[in-house]
Amino acid sequence: LATVYRVLNQFDDAGILNRHHFEGGKSVFEISHKDHHDHLVCLKCGKVIEFEDDIIEERQEMIAKKHKMKLTHHSLYLYGECTDGNCDNLPE
Q: What is its quaternary makeup (predicted)?
């Protein structure tokens, strides 16, 4: 198992994978060639939903410009709890 984690870390260092660190110590790897997206994370079951929102992206650019910054990259994680009463991944 240590070898698997070592390889994942090497792929992350090489830019092949992206590692996302979520609250609760959970890390998720995804292939780095995906288009930019943000994440919704359920704190009860750990479900991660990827989403894209042009309005959020535009607002972040406006905020950076207002503060005389040019964004090079960013990460957005929104945390909450499933509200449908049927979490996909409730811990056993």
A: Homodimer.
